Amino acid sequence: xxxxxxxxxxxxxxxxxxxxxxxxxxxxxxxxxxxxxxxxxxxxxxxxxxxxxxxxxxxxxxxxxxxxxxxxxxxxxxxxxxxxxxxxxxxxxxxxxxxxxxxxxxxxxxxxxxxxxxxxxxxxxxxxxxxxxxxxxxxxxxxxxxxxxxxxxxxxxxxxxxxxxxxxxxxxxxxxxxxxxxxxxxxxxxxxxxxxxxxxxxxxxxxxxxxxxxxxxxxxxxxxxxxxxxxxxxxxxxxxxxxxxxxxxxxxxxxxxxxxxxxxxxxxxxxxxxxxxxxxxxxxxxxxxxxxxxxxxxxxxxxxxxxxxxxxxxxxxxxxxxxxxxxxxxxxxxxxxxxxxxxxxxxxxxxxxxxxxxxxxxxxxxxxxxxxxxxxxxxxxxxxxxxxxxxxxxxxxxxxxxxxxxxxxxxxxxxxxxxxxxxxxxxxxxxxxxxxxxxxxxxxxxxxxxxxxxxxxxxxxxxxxxxxxxxxxxxxxxxxx
Length: 481
Ligand code: ZN
Known about the structure:
Actin, Chain A, domain 4; TIM Barrel; Heat Shock Protein 90; single chain
């Protein structure tokens, strides 16, 4: 019994000794690992080694394959940049300019900081510059849908004077979205369809809850996951990944730095548009529908169309059927621009005075005249004089569109007065505006109205687009709007 106890004891001691050794080894490696990341570096080679090591473990930007690191060593303000192998020349020029700005800003800032430290020391002999490092990680992503995204992520380190370790003092992220064909800068909503934020928010919420302890969350996450402008606007899209970035202190604690939420491209589905769109409707923003009756209006209507085109806007034109075949150029131009074409009867009759059969004939003849030119039948109907009853609506075969704002342009015949009438009408969101494309004064007024509406934040949309976004459904035949 005594022997056994002794033996067990000695075994236990050996075991303990091994444990102690293991623990010591483990703690040394644990102790060394973070220190190696950015302890104050001894010399240039030491700096290179530490930079390479940090870049290897940096994982904010989705991997894009081969990367190259360049170094700009200096004892007090060193920078290092990791590039991907992007072969897009124009993007590379743009990227390099951004990097130059970042480097300059960093060096200027450090210079100022150090000169004020030097002043405080009051003695050149006592002063030693602290070490500062800026790491810049950058990559370019091709969505395969016509969009290129550039991401630049930075980490800044500064020496802690008391124990000469390097402390991470700042992280930041910026992304740029461009059309691949001509490198014009585009907005998120041009590459992503409405609803993309909601889709991404579901994923991001789940990710945050499973990745971070509740104590690490700011409690403010909901604000930054909302479907509103400014949220989810930092992202990159590659062929297989979409990554959204969150600034420090927004969804998780400041000290966690920049957060990347990576999702499979197919999770986002059709909310990543299959091509860049130039005109798009953001359902969260105010919109107004301009409508023009009694055309096609020849030269004056083409003046209106030219203005719409200039501002990337569209309108709805309600044509009188018997005028259509004599002005095919204007009709085609309006249709090709994405304007909506409406039916305004065949000969501008008061349809409430006609039989069901005659109403149908008025509609059909106009539909045919338009589709002979555009290949497509009108999609909406406006009764002449706004004269409508159940019988007209039932026999029109198209959604009936009335108006909310009458500019009285046909009566005023004065561009300034028509313009002023709209300027004075606030809360135009969701409203349909009535004008006529056959008056020169209306065309002149349009040239002032459109920039004014855009300046006030309105999207200028077609009648059907507005009804769809405001009611959630496309306009229906037999209904009046
Ligand atoms: Zn009319």
